[in-house]
Amino acid sequence: MKNSFLIISIFLLLISCNEKTTNAVFVENKSELKEAIKNAKPGDDIVLKDGIWKDVEIKFVGKGTKESPIILRAETAGKVFIEGVSNLSFGGEYLTVKDLHFRNGYSPTKEVIAFRTDSKNLASNCRVTNCVIVDFNKLQRDNDDFWVQFYGRHNQLDHCYLAGKTNGGPTVRVDLKGIQSIKNYHKIVNNHFGPRPRKGGARGETIQLGSSFTSMSPSNTTIANNFFEECNGEVEIISSKTNFNEIKNNVFYKSEGSVVTRHGNYTMIDGNYFIGDGENENYGGIRIVNTGHWIVNNYFYKIIGENFRSPLAVMNGIPKSPLNRYNQVTDVVVAYNTYVDCKSPFQFGVGTNIAQSAVLPKSEIRSARPIRTTVANNVIYNSKGDETPIVEHDKADGVLFKSNIIGNNGLYLKDDIRLKPASFTLDTISENIMLPNLSSVDVEPYNGFDFDLIKTDLVGNSRENNNAIGATVKADITNPNILDKSKYGATWFKVDAIVEGKTIKVSPSDNLSEKIKSANKGDIISLNEGKYVVSKSLIIDKNLTIQSSSENKAEIVFEGAENTPAFALNPYGVLTLKNVKLSGNGKNQAFASLKENMSNHFGLSVSGSEISNFNYVLKAYKQTFAETVTFKNTSISNCENGIELSEETNDRGDYNTEFLTIDNCTFNNVKQNVIDYYRGGYDESTIGGNLLVTNSTFTNCGAKEQNKMLLNHRGIVNVNINNNTFKNNKIQFVSILWGAKNNVESNNTLINSGKIKTEENLVMKLMY
């Protein structure tokens, strides 16, 4: 009996010795945190007291072990707020940070979270989990940074929520400079990348893997099981610029851009969902550059973008391309993908620019067509027949097509070799997932070289014994609930629900400035009839509507100082002005952004209004951006300058607004800069700037315009000028259109107002 008791006691002792022990160290301020990190040992749990930690630069240095990492966490998940001028950096091994919320601030360095403390002290086997970064932006748009920058090896970002980056630089970036950071096997998994607003130019990726000059290095980074929601920063959502990366099982939901193999080779893009709405042409799919990529088992729904944003864009390359340009596509496989109601899903020779050879150096001409590329076992379904499911911007003579079918709703295609017509139905799995039922289609999957390595389909079913073309081997699958946001990101974080605004009645006797200040986001300021005399700028720092309460327009008279605006559009300030008379003293401004520290976007929509006697109608300063600027059914008269959006003169592809719309407006006696909207720099990846001028009348304008042009929109890619009248404007040109881009005009009447000219190729400064 004694021996049995002794044996049991020894057994329990051994178990207890092998159990992981945790030493919790609670800290309440920066000095205690620094001391706790300095003394941390494997298994320690450093706990930050709940509350706001402001202006704190956390250097988390230590050496944990795989079994006993050193953990830095919030006392309560989501209750520790990192604010002000703050950041976090790692140095060491097996360190974990969890449950923190970065908000109301920006980093003093180039990174909010860096997996190194300096160039000599990198992180390995470190992790950031269950954290949130929202709107943690530099004060100036051109002050680029990265919210998370990877260095070292075997580091991980998981179950985090990141949203609202407006300044330049990718949200997440992997750095490969130095042998310590190649073959890194980093993991970016199970995160929710929330809305990233349009940046208005390049350098707005959500994830960037490496750079042009490390593009020949192996990275072996995995991006998997993430949810990308409205990631609209620029044309590239994920920019893969290194070798041997895997982009797998992610959901790209209504995101204006594409997954792009920008540089580097041998990327596996497998089992992803690309969900559009059949209306927005900016939602993209996959764009291919370089060598050896495999694009398999992906599902595309209502992606109708073209060229750079087409569901599958296979680019032309530059012969003998330098590292930072476009290499030829070679040895790529596109197999077992499904396209449902996608416009022209296969596009080849995208980006060919041979026609622009007169204004570009030979080193920029993309004439190298894809070669040794296989497109096989793909399924296309169109509820409305598509006449051009394959678009050749240049010949696709280096592409092998095998066992691809199209259900085209009875529309006959002459090309039945590359796409075999078939009749089949769809099985509805969920609102956005409709899979072809191919039980009646007899097409043998093409068995190309190494195709046997594609062992599973989109949802994980085996392909080995019951293979079929398309993204899934069968249509009757279980709903994967890809839009269930609880599956991604920080467990404790919930996006604020949209609150319906209330209407606030205001009379001329009220203090309009105070009413605006006390209003909440989304409120409507309803102005009673009468005159509102304003001597200082009205601050717009949230989404507000200001409108007259009756058909009789309320009148706002701005008596403010020279070069100050009636409405100062601050970060987050989105103003809708309806049915209002707005007048100045000839030396001030109607609307203007801040001159500096515009850490977030503004927006402006004016309708049914009368604007007169200002120096500027709208003045957008450098490093400011509005997603939309709209004037409708509005008269603008007797102003020195009109709509000024031209201060982004760095020629790096930046511009001040994504969409400028002038509809059914009258401009009378606006002396210069009537519409001045500029984007500079030759950059084929910047495909924005959108100007629509329609149904409007311009009379006696442009008298002081130095370049003798009424509508200045140099470098803007999408321009449509239609159904306007231009009368007695003392200028040489109404507009000079860029013929090689999407610049068009129609049904305009010109009376004593110069002419509209088209130049096929504009000379632009190279950005590279």
TrEMBL record:
SMART domains linked to this entry: PbH1
Query: Matching Pfam families, A to Z?
Result: Chondroitinas_B
> Could you tell me which PROSITE patterns the record lists for this protein?
PROKAR_LIPOPROTEIN
What InterPro entries does the entry give? PbH1, Pectin_lyas_fold, Pectin_lyase_fold/virulence, PL-6
Protein name from the UniProt record: DUF4957 domain-containing protein
- Domain of life, per the record? Bacteria
